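In the lab's daily routine, each protein ends up as an entry in a very long ledger. A line of letters takes care of the sequence, but it says nothing directly about the fold. The three-dimensional part falls to structure tokens, numbers that each stand for a local backbone shape. The outcome of that step, for a single protein, is printed below.
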Amino acid sequence: MPPKKMPLWAYFVEGEKQNSSHSKAFCKGCLNQHKPALPNVIDVDAAGDSDAAGSGSMGDGWMAQAMTQITSVRGVRASMAAHLVSCPFASAAAKKAAQSAREDKKRNRNGSDSEDETTPPVKKHATFVAVDKVMKQSELTVFKGIDIPFNSTQKELVQKQFLRATISANLPFAWTVNPDIIKLFIMFRSRATDVMPSDAVLSGRLLDESASNVEKQLKKDLHGQYVTMGSDGWKDGYTVTGVTAAAQGKVHLVDLIHQRGKKKDGDAMCEAFCGHIDKLEATTDCTVVGYVCDNDGGSQNGRKKLVILRPWVLATACCSHQGQLILIDYLKENPEAQKTAEESSALVGWINNHERVRDIFDDVQTGGDPEKTPLAYLSGNLTRWTTHSIAFNRLIRLRAPLREAAVARDKLIIDAQVGAEKNKKKIAAMTKEAKQFIALLDDPRFWKRLQKLAEDIEPITFITNINQGDSTRADQVLLGFAGVFLHFKKHKIPSVAKGMMQRLEKRWAAMDQDFFVMALVLNPYEKLSRFGNDAGIDVFVLEGILLNLYKRVNSRPPVQPLTDAEQEDKERKEAAVSAAFLNYMSGTGPFASFEESRERFQNVHGDDPILVWRQFLNSTDVSDLADFAILLLGIVINQGGVERVFSDMKIKRTRLRNRLTFKKTEKMSKVGAVIRAENMAAGLTTAREPRKNHDDSRVAELIAVPKYADILENEDPADDNTAERVSSRLVNSRAAWRKLFTSWAVSARQEEMEAEEDEEESAMTVPHTASRKKWLPRSLSLLFGGKIQKEPETRRPRKAFNREELLMELLAAEHSDEEPDDGELEGSGDDYDGDSE
């Protein structure tokens, strides 16, 4: 008995075989259009009776002639349904049947294409089929899950969740076709392979759809917002430039651009920066008010040219990089500190590189208790600046057990160092090296120098952490500079104090002082409170600086020339901004109520100045000033967001996945950022606690201008950003430290030379104004000097000791962490007063 034809054949006439499996199908509606206009000629029946059209066979009569004049389709459901849907001669019933056939196919993707099973089913991924077959074997000891089919909506949701899981857990796309993964899902539900996407679908259609949705959401988020753009370079086989956009405290990846073969001179970089700005403004309808990049030769020149071409863009160098540069300055000004850092790095490297030696120190740490876990001996990382401070502080913390092991177990340490070596020369070299480090550990002068080094670089690393946050403001950066300046102003070594002050002043002179100073003044919680008595502040001069900066930011050329009415309105706004600023400085008018309730408002809402200014946007008299203040305070002046994107890319483009294209990596980064934000908002993941690299009791003492602890709460959980994208390497030897310091010094020297050349052309990157000549530029010493400093604590005189007390004191000191006074040797008896016998 022949198989039953599918219902769509009722609207087609079957012709000759097109191939070994399928026949040609001729639409009856199309055939009727070629019916001869003669009497007694019967139409092709819509119900499918074609014998009436001829003399008993398909080759007889007018139908055979008509078949040569129309185009046939392949006799499968998809082709026949597609023809009926679009055919102008098909009946309504035929179109309805075709639509129904299409829906049936969607509901059963794995079914046959025809009821007679002449068309093979849609193929699954080969691995899915193979695993399904294996799971059907009777001798298999595993079980299959419940047999419930998925509908189309469920399938779509499941596949989207597969993509989210892949990106969120940083899994390879091919994990869904892993046989054991497939078996696992089949154990939950036997039809799991019906909805599991293959690696091609996962990395193709699903990723493209999600990335497209992210792009649409980005356009909504940035629409009408003030945006700060940033860019930085990265090398991973190819040179890539990452471009980000920051708005409302969030950083978004905008683009990844291949830089192969492109120039990096000032003109080329300026053209690239302008292209980034134009593209973002055109696609999102935002307003780019700031641009941040590196301060190397090409980027620096390109940034300065950008300000000349587009003065309304506040372009600055990345301030998070200043921390490393200031650290280099300190090491250059203090050779003793540089030597101590080199010795400390070599010491930690020696301990970590000799396992048996490390075991001895660990045993002293734990007191021989196997249940206790010894602290690790940390090494500074080449590409993470703050790790050097952390490593030095850890070494200081382990001072007591390290010294105890060096003194009490020196022979064991030497034996562990030499090991089974038989060569006499090598034994002598190893013994000499071990004795040198043992002597270093027992040298109190080394520990005193290390303590001074750690105390000096801690404020530098502190502002580095602050300056790399996604919401770091210009006023915070200025206060950080001032704090480090005042810290080194009080340094005990005059040459270090003088040298560091000069270097910090030079870095401050290269910055856009109008922008940074006005950002601090427009912080309603600060205003002028941080400036010293020597600043010589004049409110009217500040008003002039503010107005010039306001005009500069609003100097963007209009699409059409301004009419007289529009010009008058522009001048009215400028006058309103000036009047509102004077009211703001005096705390009168609309600002009077805030001054009265400032402390209460701060206790409830925190010290975010942007939140305060948002409350004045609806006030007619001060709305323009409020909008301008939000613009200045919202500019993020670091590349931390770009650096974190590169860190994320290094996680995704691993050694085993190095064939991922950068466009696909870009999509993965964008989708992954949205997934992390959604999970954080839903409470599914916990934000990492702020780093505790600094003792809470010392935070207020690190810098003379406090209020920085809360800033660290906004720091991204990702690792510290990096100055150059090189493989992370630990500094664990003298040679490594010298190489690191030399590379840093070369970079700093190159920047200084470029800065000196630029000073000959122009002292600043912004146009000069009359107000600047009166007050700005101004040194940090004048801006923040003249404050009443805390009087140094007077040292209490030591009491006289008798012999017994002296011996007890010396014995206790030998087993304590107390450092000897300057010029005193441990156990020397310098404290002994012979007259007290």
The chain has a mean pLDDT of 80. The chain is about 55% helix and 5% strand. The first strand starts at residue 12 and ends at 17. The two ends are 128 Å apart (CA to CA).
